[in-house]
Amino acid sequence: MILVLTAGVLFSAPKPKILPQLVTPDVLKYTPVLVPDSCVTTGLSVVANKTYVYLSVMNIGDTSTIQSSTYTLDSKPSGSNATISTIPSLGWVKFRTDVVGQYIVRTSITTSTGTKDTTIKITSANYVGVGNYENVPATYPNCMSCHATWSNFQTIFNKWKVSGHATRFKRDIDSGGTAGFSTSCMKCHTTGYDHNQYADNHGFDDVARQVGWSWTTWGPPKKGNWDSLVNKYPTLSQFATIGCESCHGAGSQHASTGDTTAIEIPYKPNVCGKCHESYWRHTVYTQWRASLHSNPVMEGRTVADSLRNNLNDCNRCHDGRDFLGYYSYNRKDPIALNKGDQTPIGCQTCHDPHGGSGEHQLRVPATGSDTLANGVSYTAAGNGKICMSCHSARKNAATFITVRGSFSSTWGPHENPQGDVLWGSNLATFGFPWISGSHKNNPDACVSCHMAATTDTGTVTYNKVGLHSMNMTYGTYENVKGCLNCHPGVTSFDDFVAPQDFDGNGLIESWQKEVKGCISKLGHALPHTGYDTVNWIPIARDSNNINLRKAYWNYLMITKDGSYGIHNPFLAVQVLLTSINYAVGISQNGTEIPKAFELSQNYPNPFNPSTKIDFSLPRAENISIKIYDMTGREIKSLVDMRMQPGKYSTEWLGTDGNGRQVSSGVYFYRLVAGGNVITKKMILIK
Q1: Could you give the dihedral angle defined by the CA atoms of residues 299, 350, 41 and 34, in that order, rounded to the nearest 10 degrees?
Q2: Which portions of the chain are predicted below pLDDT 50?
Q3: I want to staple 271 with a disulfide (CB 3.0 to 4.6 A). Which of 128, 248, 266, 409 is the partner?
Q4: Number of H helices, E strands in the chain
């Protein structure tokens, strides 16, 4: 045992992971220590020659904090004078590549648990151009001089060449451009144009100088510019696009050596941020960084191969790269085993970077992957399909709830089942279907509201709500812009007032407040501890009480949805109020609304040991049903709550308020609902 414990201690040790850092135009602009000798970069390990590389290190071996770190260049190309310098305020180091080839950087970290080192390879290369673009044949070392022979690359190329990325510069200088277009736009709209610091690495600006093309003699944008450029400068046209190397890194080393590690396939959104974070026009990356998607909520987990790409695979939603295997390609990429490897839910997760006819085309789901766990399809959700792929319960209520055996504090639907609630599906039923709302009829479901554009520049909410932030609130601001088409005039969620007092507190409030009140009431109807904490343990022990489990499932579904009714208001209150009834032993007899208050004769009567009592409510009322003995003394309260109209049943087990069995005899039961009082007699025989 001592040896085992000792071995366990030895495994607690640091493990460094070197991470290339992204520098966007905004980061460069607003970070003084990076100015004036630094440049914008993608954060890839394949970089354009004569540009800067920024590095940081994290400890992925244990939870100990890095106390110190050192960096050295183990090797660099012949003739290189590159040296590493520190940026203490950022915790980064940087160096400028000056010769094409490989740079091996070593770092050693020291923590309270030990010292450890590791290395990273940085490839510096020149740009080679795409090739085969706009009918200009590819010549070595253009990307398509090799990749055109492989069908899968040709398929990707065919999608890309009609995408917004491919045609951006063409539209800029031709009829789609504007009078304000200038060389500053070319930093992002071409391949390899220098961004903030001069570097001769065969990018668009360098090739333009070589062939004699200059915008000053071509501007302003006008019809025919593009055709003239292609005809007169065909070589330059292969860089006059947001091409392969804009995202994969400069390709000369990959082309000359065939080294597959000398080019990069980026799954992290850093490569997009290089262009899409530049105040104030290009702020998609800024919006994304304000979203929860930018913060991975867990490290990747190793799962059995049989569990990959299905509802049991945690990584399929918590890791952006692994999600692609489930959603689009049914492939099994390497699992992100630690926080240093994990890919956030970023641009490439939702958008196909190779595009298609759209500017930033959303990914198309694999056949059969656009269904909830209960098999209900959400194909009609439009662009919201990709949201619902992860924002779902991931368990089928109809089968999961009835399984006896294991039951723990994590029992129930997965976190964030917004898709199920919006779609009105996979809530536990009690013998009749739920009546769902209409918000799922928004053309793009989730996207319609969460990505509604909000205020323009100069406000504190700019880039904090709506669009790619997906946020609906920021501070006290609530983004209801997506609601205005159907609900003109609303300015906050409190403006959505419920039609009645569903939670029975005597006030008609906003939908969210009414639903919160109903959630609280259901929490108290379920076994609970403290004020608002459901106690799952007695629910687990009572494995025969399926209705109690159903009520608990519904409590978790509406609570974890987090919209407090906004996604599907009538469904939310219907599910909560019905679940309250069943949690306290009241069952509903169908969906018919009766015409009058009724209290039926109990059955059986006489009875032993239990009897059922049916009652009907034509409208919502605060009602009570109580049992009295022959002297008029109250024996037990069976129902004491506000209830919606309907036909119901409850049961008396012949016990008093303390759970003790009462004696044989005649008892009375009384229904009080508003101004209506109905009393009937029953007989208990033992």
Answers
A1: -70
A2: 1-10
A3: 266
A4: 24, 20
